[in-house]
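Sample intake sheet
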Amino acid sequence: MTDREVRHAELAEQYLPAEVLERFRERAGDYDRENRFFDEDLEDLKDLRYLTLFVPASHGGPGLSLHEVSRLQQRLASAAPATALAINMHLMCTGVVKAMNDRGDDSLNWVFDEVMAGEIFAFGISEPSNDWVLQGSTTTAEPMDGGGYLLSGVKIFTSLSPVWTRLIVHGLVSGGDGSDSGGLAGADDGNTAADELVYGFIERSAEGITISDQWDVLGMRASQSRATILDKVKMRPEHVSRRIPTGKHPDLLTFAITSNFQLLIASVYAGVARRALELGAAGLHKRKSAKSGTTFAEVPEARTRLADAHLDYLSVPAMLDAYTRDFDELVDHGAGWPLRLVGARIKASGAARRAAETALMCTGGSGFDNSHELSRLYRDATASLFHPPSADAARPMYAAMLLDD
C-alpha cells in the first residue's frame, strides 16, 4: 500500500469503523421503510466527530482535505446512501469555508467555530424551476435598514430539514421590478443591470421559516430533504457573505460551492455504485442455473453484464481522486474546472443507476422485494437524476468548449 492508501485506511477506521458502518447499513432499511430521519446515525457521526472533518486544526478540528472526505463519503454511502447524501450538505458548507480559507479568504471562518459548538449547517440554494441555480434566484432579498436582508421564497430539497440550525441561502436584490421575468435573476429581460444576488446564512431560530411536512418520495427517504419556505426571514448583517451580479460572474464563493457540491455528491453515488456491484456479484454466486448446473457466476452472459457495469464504474473513483487532489493542491484549471466538476457528478450518477439495475438483474427476483437492500439502492440511485445541473443543461457547456462558442 502507498502512504496515501495507508492514510485513507487509518481515516476509515477512525471515522467510519466497520462495526459502525454495519449498524448504519442495518438501520438504512428501517429508515427507508418508515420514512424517517436518521437520528441514530447522526448521533453516531457526532460521536465520531464526523461533522468536523473539514474544520482545520487551528479551530480544533482534524482539517481533512476534500480528497480524504470524498473517500470517506464513498465509504459511508456504501452502507447508508441517504445518510451520506444528507450529511453531505453540512460537509459541503464546511468544505466551502475551508476552500476559501485555503485560498486566502478567511471571511467565513466563523463557521468553523459554530461547527465546533455543535451547529449543523445545510444547503438552501435549490428552488422550484430555477435552472439558473447559482446565477439567479426566485427568492427575493429585501435590504434592511442597518444592513442585512429579509428573504422570501421557497428552497427545495433542503436535506437535514429536521435538524439543521444554519442554512446557506441566496436571494435576488432587485434593481428593477422584474415584471417580464417573474423576478428570476439572470433572465434576458425584465431585470436591470443593477440586479444582484446576496449569499449568506440564516438561523433556524429566525422568524418566518416554515418546513414543509411533505416528504414521501421514491428514494433517499431518510435524508428528509423537505422544502423550506421563507417569509421575510432575517439574514443578519454579520452573516451576509457576498453580493454578486446575476449571471456568469466568477467568484471564489460560488466556485467553492460548485466544487464541493459536485464532487461530494459524486462521491455519494460512487459509493452507491460500488455497493450495488458487490451485491450483484453476491447474487450471481448465490443463484444456481438449472440449465448449466452451475452458479450464475459461471454463466458467460451474466459475467459479461456485471463486467460492463464494473468497467463503467471504475472511471468514477479515478475522476474523484484526480479532481479532489487537484482542488486541494490549488491547481488552476481555469475554464476547465466546471467541465471536470459537473462531469464527475454526472458520470457518478449514471454509474450508480446502471450498477443498481445490473445488480438487480444479477440478483434475480429476490432483489425486487422491498426488503432487499438492492431494491432500496435502486430507488436511492434514481435521486441522482435531480441534482443540478442535469445532463441536458450541461451538454452546451461541453460543446461550447470544443466548438469555440
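Comment: The two ends are 45 Å apart (CA to CA). The first strand starts at residue 121 and ends at 124.
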